[in-house]
């Protein structure tokens, strides 16, 4: 029976410190190999916190990884080059993303988002732009959402 260890690591920067060492050491798995594999599989999320589940088979000392995806907000902040969102999202804009970037994020998040279609998932990403104080192609994301929903209803 496999044992699961859930951790949150910074992409590409996992370390064999107290958290991983104390959780995986007693299971007899090579912690160095686990850390190297986590860093390899999370390097594209450098600077973002990524959920990782390590499944260890105690009998064979083998392991598998399930790497989650960072939250939409973290992906948007990376896109605009900011550490955190606006404290006043209705009045303060911290950056701008393209509609192509919104589409890439919606595709990357895939089933993690609730929308049934890519269009609905993109709207969810645009909604996150509202709360972060990020514009989309220079437009207020609220106005963009309204026009996208109106256009969809007209079809």
* Number of structural units classed as domains: 2
Order of helices and strands: EHHEEHEHHEH
Low-confidence stretches: none
Topology-level CATH name of the largest domain: Arc Repressor Mutant, subunit A
Strand element count: 5
- The CATH class of the largest domain is Mainly Alpha
Helical percent range?
Answer: 40-55%
Count of helical segments?
6
Strand portion: 15-25%
Approximate shape: elongated
Q: What is the CATH architecture annotation of the largest domain?
A: Orthogonal Bundle
- End-to-end separation in angstroms reads 52 Å
The description of the largest β-sheet is:
3 strands, antiparallel
Superfamily (CATH H level) name of the largest domain: Ribosomal protein L11/L12, C-terminal domain
Structural class: alpha+beta
Give the neighbour order of strands across the main sheet. Answer: 1-2-3
Q: Please tell me how large the radius of gyration is.
A: 19 Å
Mean pLDDT metric: 89
Walkthrough of the structure:
With 155 residues, this protein is α+β, with helices and mostly antiparallel strands. It has two domains: 3-67, Ribosomal protein L11/L12, N-terminal domain (Ribosomal protein L11, N-terminal domain), CATH 3.30.1550.10; 72-154, Ribosomal protein L11/L12, C-terminal domain (Arc Repressor Mutant, subunit A, Orthogonal Bundle), CATH 1.10.10.250. It is 44% helix and 19% strand. It is built from six helices and five strands. It has helices at 18-24, 31-42, 72-80, 99-109, 118-132, 141-154; strands at 3-10, 49-57, 62-67, 95-97, 134-136. It has a three-stranded antiparallel beta sheet, with helices on one face. It has a two-stranded parallel sheet with strand order 4-5. Strand 2 (49-57) and strand 3 (62-67) form a beta hairpin. Helix 3 (72-80) packs antiparallel against helix 4 and helix 3 packs across helix 5 (118-132). The longest helix is centred in the C-terminal third of the chain and has 15 residues, at 118-132. The chain is elongated, with a radius of gyration of 19 Å. The protein starts with a strand and ends with a helix. The relative contact order is 0.12. The mean pLDDT is 89.
């Amino acid at each position: 029976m496999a044992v699961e260890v859930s951790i949150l690591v910074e992409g590409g920067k996992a370390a064999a410190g107290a958290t991983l060492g104390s959780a995986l050491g007693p299971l007899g798995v090579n912690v160095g190999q686990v850390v190297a594999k986590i860093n390899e599989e999370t390097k594209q999320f450098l600077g973002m916190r990524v959920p990782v589940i390590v499944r260890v088979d105690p009998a064979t000392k083998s392991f598998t990884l399930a790497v989650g995806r960072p939250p939409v907000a973290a992906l948007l902040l990376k896109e605009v080059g900011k550490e955190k969102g606006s404290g006043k999202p209705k009045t303060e804009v911290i950056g701008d993303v393209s509609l192509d970037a919104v589409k890439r994020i919606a595709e990357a998040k895939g089933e993690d988002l609730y929308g049934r279609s890519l269009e609905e998932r993109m709207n969810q990403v645009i909604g996150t732009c509202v709360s972060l104080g990020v514009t989309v192609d220079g437009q207020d994301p609220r106005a963009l959402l309204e026009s996208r929903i109106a256009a969809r209803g007209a079809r």
